[in-house]
Amino acid sequence: MSVSGSERSAEGNRKKRVVIVGGGTAGWMTASYLTAAFGDRVDLTVVESAQIGTIGVGEATFSDIRHFFEFLRLEESDWMPECNATYKLAVRFENWREPGHHFYHPFEQMSSVDGFPLSDWWLRNPTTSRFDKDSFVMTSLCDAGVSPRYLDGSLIDQDFVEQERDDDSARSTIAEYQGAQFPYAYHFEAHLLAKYLTGYATRRGTRHIVDNVVDVALDERGWISHVRTEEHGDLEADLFVDCTGFRGLLLNKALGEPFVSYQDTLPNDSAVALQVPLDMEREPIRPCTTATAQEAGWIWTIPLISRVGTGYVYASDYTTPEQAERVLRDFVGPAAADVPANHIKMRIGRSRRSWVNNCVGVGLSSGFVEPLESTGIFFIHHAIEQIVKYFPSGGAGDDRLRELYNRSVGHVMDGVREFLVLHYRSAKRADNQYWKDTKTRTVPDSLAERIEFWKHKVPDAETVYPYYHGLPPYSYNCILLGMGGIDVNYSPALDWANEKAALAEFERIRVKAEKLVQELPTQNEYFAAMRAGR
Ligand SMILES: Cc1cc2nc3c(=O)[nH]c(=O)nc-3n(C[C@H](O)[C@H](O)[C@H](O)COP(=O)(O)OP(=O)(O)OC[C@H]3O[C@@H](n4cnc5c(N)ncnc54)[C@H](O)[C@@H]3O)c2cc1C
Ligand SMILES: N[C@@H](Cc1c[nH]c2cc(Cl)ccc12)C(=O)O
Is 88 considered catalytic here? Predict the structure, then answer.
């Protein structure tokens, strides 16, 4: 049966009621975005427990998150100081190849010369031993610890052109900006962002209830009719958003949607985190996330204003929480002596479907992979954009919209899973059982085949995971060439090609990096100026 446009708009015009259960980063990002998208044409409620805490460890993001802030019409100077935020130009991988080795995965598109990516040219004739330094300007900026903006706030000269916008301009989404690589992302305290967004959303009409949801009631069709709270009665809605974190209270527990584990290919299932004070007068704020390989996983280092978020992500099959905490404390040194450790058990994988009937899971309830490439908040942001894109009418087409949503969200997580598995499979390090097993553990089927292709032709759009999952082919090049455990060959055609233009491109990158390192302020200088109101 088809639904006419007028019938649909009549149903669509009724004010929709949305109840979001959970007030972590996912809950408040969703509330803020829906408010910004629909204004008071949608009736929004967020209910969060005062007893059940949120996950917040000091997070790193994708550069795409700027579209989220732009959608909310927020400037960096509005939210960054509130969230102890800093800039992230890359992920720096330490000791994944061998002790003392490091390389970067930067926010910078890799150039092509005569139709071949720079990685191919570099493999044919490595200018130095550092693929990342020869091919990307950002690598030098990270080593030098500088900000991607000058003290007057202007952005470094990149191919990317910042859009001029005024209050009436259209707002962009992630999908519209594929191809143009923005030069940086952020580090921030996710729980402070949730707090900031609480103010944003409630000032714009979102109802905020602090209470425990104690029951989720289903109607005869198996749809959620209401959630029951301890002190605020029953909350009814057209759409329920499950932002209850790893619990998946609505989606997994009440609706019984199965959780598909990724544990067979990504065994890290635990973390221990610390918030370490940082003396900004003396210590540099590195403009990158650092991922340092360890005996049973890796340690993240995320520089924030006045502190560093750090934690050890490990596989409980290979070490214990006590040993992991010891390794982390040794790594950080005396600065962590009085800081309490936060032990976290992670649920790795995704709900089979994230949207079931009138319930959609966003955040950890929908799915999570270990934070190696900082994808958690990207998953949330992507999911919210898709909710708006596939927002239900209440009519007969909704099944199809949900199906499209589930495909899109499933592809993003499955694609990211492949990308992360590649990190372990391609890491040269094999000095203990944990690292040896990364070479023999099963990988997602198609990845095994892709790796065989990549040995002879560096990753491009034709050979990476074929659906949108946030990561461009150049990211795969960075990991393969940086990790060093899989032999990658250059395209044979380059033996007959003239490399003059490629050598000129490497030289252009070197000169540009040298110039920017001279000119740019350090992150410490930049954020001191921002916080002083510039
Ligand atoms: C170790 C680790 C490191 C991470 N690092 C990064 C990173 O670098 N980059 C990144 O992008 N992401 C990272 N993430 C992910 C990121 O922290 C989360 O995606 C993000 O915080 C969203 O969490 P959430 O809102 O889904 O869940 P939570 O923060 O767990 O929030 C759950 C909410 O549900 C509420 N709730 C639960 N049950 C009930 C109930 N019965 N009644 C009422 N309310 C209830 C709670 O009160 C809480 O408000 C990391 C995660 C982990 C575990
Ligand atoms: N579109 C994403 C993907 C991305 C491109 N380069 C990087 C580098 C790193 Cl460290 C993470 C993510 C990415 C984005 O632009 O954020």
Answer: yes
